Amino acid sequence: MGLLDKLKNRTQRAKGRAKEEMGRESRDPDLEAEGRKDRMAGGTKQVGEKAKDAAREVRRSGP
């Protein structure tokens, strides 16, 4: 579950970057904002996955 989620998050971030760049080039502020939103959402989810991984490591290395 973790690896697949991480790949989805990276894909979402990449799509967001692409939308953001296309919005800048076409001078479409709505598309640029949508891309920024997608990129930030993917990044936020990625942070959550890293936190889950850290929690698992703590449990594994417990007493």
State the main characteristics:
CsbD-like protein, mainly alpha, 63 residues, 2 helices, YjbJ_sf, single chain
Fold and architecture overview:
The protein has a domain at 2-44. Helix content is 89%, strand content 0%. The protein is built from two helices and no strands. This is CsbD-like protein. Residues 1-63 are annotated as: Disordered. InterPro entries: YjbJ_sf. Residues 17-40, 47-63 have a biased composition (Basic and acidic residues).
Shape: rod-shaped
User: Fraction of residues in helices?
Assistant: over 70%
Average predicted confidence as pLDDT: 92
The description of the largest β-sheet is: none
Beta strands, count: 0
Distance between the termini: 26 Å
* Assembly category: single chain
How large is the share of residues in beta strands?
A: under 5%
Structural class by helix and strand composition: mainly alpha
- Low-pLDDT windows of residues: none
**Secondary-structure element order, N to C:** HH
Counted by DSSP, the helix tally is 2
Rounded to the nearest angstrom, the radius of gyration is 16 Å
Provide a quick synopsis of the model.
The protein has 63 residues and is an all-alpha fold.
Task: Please outline the helices and strands.
Elements: H1 2-25, H2 29-60
Helix pairs in contact: 1-2
Organism: Actinomadura hallensis
Region (Disordered): 1-63
Biased composition (Basic and acidic residues): 17-40, 47-63
